[in-house]
Amino acid sequence: MAPISSHPAAASRIAGLIVAGALLAGTLAHAADAPRPTLSATDVLAQSAPSAWRPVDPENTLYLELATGRVVMELAPAFAPRHVANLKTLVREKYFDGLSIVRAMDDYVVEWEDSEGKRPTQSAATTLPPEFFGDVRAEQPFLRLPDGDVYAPEVGFSGGYPVARDPKTHTRWLTHCYGMLGLGRDNDPTSGFGGSPFVVIGQTRNLDRNDTLIGRVVHGIDLLSTLPRGTGPLGFYEKREQHVPIRSMKVAADVPVAERTEVEVLRTDTPTFLAYVEARRSPPLGWYVQPAGHVDVCTVRVAARLRPKGPVPAAK
Predict the structure, then answer these.
(1) Which phi and psi angles does 119 have, rounded to 5°?
(2) What are the two backbone dihedrals, phi and then psi, of residue 286, each rounded to the nearest 5 degrees?
(3) φ, ψ dihedrals at 203, nearest 5°
(4) What does the pLDDT look like over 196-214, one tens digit per residue?
(5) Which residues contact 65 (CB under 8 A, 6 or more apart)?
(6) What is the model's pTM?
(7) Are residues 229 and 299 in the same domain?
(8) Contact in structure between 303 and 276 (CB atoms under 8 Å)
(9) Total of domains in the chain
(10) H or E, element range at 86
């Protein structure tokens, strides 16, 4: 458990963390069974201890470089190992450098690819067995939301990602929530090898278990969500000049340390995260006249932030 200060203000923080015992049971306390939080979700994050956060792994982080800035995407090899590996191969072979964002569909996705179909691949595979879902694994902890879901028997969080599960089939899958990174495909389920990545910017849960999700944006989502919407079918840009050029895509581990964007993600296996969820479910008294008392897996966006800068080392 994250350390709690002895300062008087810690009383409110303790109230916010009172649901921590539910963590051991692998589920969150229902709003009816827990006291009304006294901290907002923003306050929970502001008062969180450093141990409530984890840095992203540079080897499993991608940078999408646009003229407007950098989009940072964390990959999830625990859920789609083949597709993550293949996409990193494409990135390292500079497959995406000089290509464009070709689609921005309102309330749906932003997508980039070789629109002319002329970019050759090198050692990367061009077909892969789908990883739309996988077996439930004991080594992947799962924190279940008690509020229910219309797309899956169970939803919750695992390793910092929104996840759905079906106890009858013992399967689990990542959910298409805002900011999730997926791989577009044609009708053939094996065609989503990574040549057409997309990022969710709306409601796309109908895609669950129909394409492979491989991670999520942890910084710079606004650079994608604010793009002009395509006016063609499915939000594709109709004119070449509407395309948004991609300067490059890189694996963060291949970028000099001084040039990296250091991001950390809120851990989903701590009392702090439980307090964060409860604050989203039933915000403290104040502006809300009638709190919902419920959340769904996509309204609890796992927080991410730039890592705080440490003290400057003394000159030698």
Answers:
(1) -80, 120
(2) 150, -115
(3) -100, 110
(4) 999 999 999 999 999 999 9
(5) 246, 247, 248, 249, 250
(6) 0.88
(7) no
(8) yes
(9) 2
(10) helix 81-92
